[in-house]
Write a structure and sequence with these properties.
The complex is a heterodimer of chains A (310) and B (336). Chain A has helices at residues 3-17, 42-45, 57-69, 88-95, 98-101, 151-160, 201-215, 232-239, 257-264, 286-292, 296-308; strands spanning 22-25, 50-52, 74-77, 110-116, 141-144, 165-170, 192-196, 219-223, 226-228, 244-248, 271-275. Chain A has a seven-stranded mixed sheet with strand order 2-1-3-4-6-5-9, with helices on both faces. Chain A has a four-stranded parallel sheet with strand order 8-7-10-11, sandwiched between helices. Chain A is 34% helix and 16% strand. The longest helix of chain B is centred in the first third of the chain and has 24 residues, at 48-71. In chain B, α4 (86-93) runs parallel beside α5 (110-117) and α4 (86-93) packs across α9 (246-263). Chain B has 336 residues and is α/β, with parallel strands linked by helices. In chain B, the strands form two sheets. In chain B, strands 2-3-1-4-5-9-8 form a seven-stranded mixed sheet, with helices on both faces. Chain B has helices at residues 15-21, 36-41, 48-71, 86-93, 110-117, 120-127, 158-168, 188-199, 246-263, 288-296, 300-305, 310-330; strands at 102-105, 145-146, 149-151, 176-181, 204-210, 213-214, 217-218, 237-242, 267-272. The chains are: A alpha/beta (310), B alpha/beta (336). The interface between A and B is large, with 34 and 43 residues.
């Protein structure tokens, strides 16, 4: 099964199980089924509960909050994760706040799915990884899908919590097969641990395999599924006694995943380095984009460098 | 979390199930979910004119007391009073079915809240940051939640939320009302909401309280074109009124709410009003003659002349406010 099918199947299951659930998004109706085909078949199966919306991200997310607070859970599909900036006020000041601010008198079961990431040549406003701007927002859980866990299970978990969730999906990943956690390299005594999430996981895994084969450097890849609140204890336990850690993310440098990993590991590791995307917009040029985003070679080199430090 | 932090009169009922319990379709059950104290406070047994006067007085006295407590240094933070706009709150809220209709209000929400709930004690305690406040001291003046009443302090942000809430309860014949002001006409969320409400046929009443000023900035500097004519191109029917008579507003609101409920369509209810008080505390920069104009449209004196036992009602309302302040002052401060 591919990632897109796993998410699509979970959406079908959730729609079948909860007759109050509504899916909102732009261009989600069949035969199109969403820009990345994740909602394919849903509007045919659940005509009354899959609504195609105006291009109105703030409005859609606000509407979802209002529906959810009055008993109708909503899953919102943002066509591109980049458009989440248009919904920032609704996410920060409405969806994520209502429950606490209203003294736990309400719940807001809203899930926002956002396809993020580059490597498709879409250029500056359609290739970003903006999730860090929504991490650290109290009341909002941010999850990131990857193919070494079941993306559908992640969606089920988010839905069961009946609390606001932002799920970061990766555009490139939709066509990848779901491999499961056993496919992640986890040597017994790792020389280096790579901490990463989302679309960078496959590159980290490829790098770890090359490191084992070409350099005999045993490398563990930890694919973090929950970005916020950051699971510090779990990350520390995954790192274990390894003293070298490389954090890898596709977003811009600073105030992000790597910073949070570093914070969780203060005083725990001897060597730490971070690989991120560029500190300028993502170019449209395909080769240039590939050079800028952390790929197999860059990850491999960063691990070797850390290993050589002792 | 301690028990008393979740302030509920009916505390055997889970918060999450309360919403379901409120689905009462019989009009005979109207207002019955409010506790007897609140029913008396809102004067449901009184003739309309007397009831509206009592509710307006209650709002006026609560807000005057809040400003007083601020000037004495007994209140923290901020508060936005609706002094002069009470007729809107009373006229619109009384046209609703409190058992199923939903209200979304803004930073200037005390009047709407009191007219909906009669929870004077809970409101004052909330603004005084007490555990007995309507939101346990978490929300304060502009973030209230009581049954189907909600407010938030972000301009225009509640508009799409109101649309969603109306759609969620449309099958039960519920209507959602969202209060906006002339200053909010600059927010894009308002226009996204008009479009969404029209496209999805949401039973929403957009109430525009035009007091001609946004904080300290007069309307002519920030609002282009016509506020009354704004909704028409979205296919949204408009009702408009220029005046401050709560009975006239009530009748127009009844017509608007009736249309929205029957047709399952949104409407735009424009109400021209006057803010007599400052934006928040002492920040009124309007010239004296403009303030004089505003005071001349105070809705309370004309209503007072229509009510035989006004002194008695005033004394009753004053006593309610006194007791609410005393009881809030005696309650523990909200913390952690």
């Amino acid at each position: 099964m591919r990632v897109v099918e796993s998410i699509n199947r979970a959406l079908h299951d959730l729609m079948g199980a909860d007759l109050r659930l509504v899916i909102l998004g732009e261009d989600v109706l069949d035969p199109y089924g969403g820009a990345f085909k994740v909602t394919k078949g849903l509007s045919s199966a659940y005509k009354d509960r899959v609504w195609t919306t105006p291009i109105s991200e703030g409005g859609i997310v606000g509407m979802a909050a209002g529906m959810a607070i009055k008993g109708r859970p909503v899953i919102v599909e943002l066509m591109f994760g980049d458009f989440i900036a248009l919904a920032a006020d609704q996410i920060i000041n409405h969806v994520a706040k209502f429950r606490w601010m209203y003294n736990d008198q309400v719940e807001v079961p809203v899930i926002i799915r956002a396809p993020m990431g580059g490597r498709r040549g879409y250029g500056p406003t359609h290739s970003q990884s903006l999730e860090k701007h929504f991490c650290g927002v109290p009341g909002l859980t941010v999850l990131a899908t990857h193919e070494y866990a079941d993306p559908g299970t992640l969606l089920h978990r988010a839905f069961a919590s009946r609390s606001p969730h932002l799920i970061i999906e990766n555009k490139v990943m939709y066509s990848r097969p779901v491999l499961g956690p056993d496919a992640l390299p986890r040597p017994a005594d790792a020389d280096v641990v790579i901490l990463t999430y989302g679309g960078c996981v496959e590159h980290a895994v490829a790098a770890a395999k090359k490191l084992a084969q070409e350099e005999e450097i045993a490398t563990t890849v930890v694919a973090v599924e929950q970005l916020s609140p950051f699971p510090g204890d779990e990350v520390r336990s995954q790192v274990g006694n390894c003293t070298r850690v490389v954090a890898v993310e596709e977003g811009s440098p600073g105030w992000g995943f790597a910073s949070e990993c570093a914070r969780a590991l203060i005083g725990r590791v001897r060597h730490f380095s971070a690989l991120t995307g560029p500190d300028h917009p993502i170019p449209s040029s395909r080769d240039w984009e590939d050079d800028l985003l952390p790929g197999v070679n860059a990850i491999q080199a960063a691990c070797i460098e850390l290993f050589q430090k002792g | 979390m301690t028990k008393e932090r979740a302030i509920r009169k009916d505390e055997t009922v889970l918060a999450s199930s309360l919403a379901e319990l409120q689905i009462v379709t019989s009009s005979a059950a109207r207002n019955l979910t409010l506790a007897p104290t609140e029913r008396g406070l809102l004067g449901f047994e009184l003739p309309a004119a007397v009831r509206f006067y009592q509710q307006m007085m209650l709002i006026r006295l609560v807000e005057e007391r809040l400003l007083d407590l601020f000037s004495q240094g007994l209140l923290f933070g901020t508060t936005h009073t609706s002094i002069g706009q009470e007729a809107n709150a009373v006229g619109v809220i009384n046209a609703l079915d409190r058992d199923r209709d939903i209200v979304w209000s803004n930073h200037r929400c005390h009047g709407h809240f009191i007219a909906y709930s009669g929870e004077v004690e809970g409101l004052i305690a909330e603004i005084m940051g007490r555990v007995t406040g309507i939101c346990g001291g978490r929300g304060g003046s502009q973030h209230l939640c009581f049954r189907n009443f909600h407010s938030n302090g972000i301009q225009g942000g509640i508009a799409p939320v109101a649309v969603g809430s109306a759609l969620a309860r449309k099958d039960e014949g519920a209507v959602a009302v969202v209060f906006l002001g002339d200053g909010t006409m600059g927010e894009g969320a308002v226009y996204e909401s008009l479009n969404l409400a029209s496209v999805f046929a949401a039973p929403v009443v957009f109430v525009i309280e035009d007091n001609e000023i946004a904080q300290t900035t007069p309307k002519h500097l920030t609002v282009s074109g016509s506020i009354v004519a704004r909704a028409e191109p979205f296919g949204v029917r408009t009702f408009a009124y220029d005046g401050n008579d709560p009975i006239a507003i009530y009748e127009l609101a009844q017509e608007a709410v009736g249309y929205v409920r029957a047709e399952s369509r949104p409407c735009w209810l424009y109400l021209r009003t006057e803010r007599i008080g400052p934006h928040s505390k002492g920040d009124d920069t309007r010239p004296a003659e403009r303030l004089e104009q505003a005071r001349a449209r105070d809705p309370i004196p004309p209503m007072r002349r229509r009510v035989a036992n006004a002194d008695e009602i005033d004394a009753y309302c004053l006593n309610v406010v006194d007791r609410a302040v005393e009881s809030a002052a005696a309650a523990a401060l909200a913390r952690g």
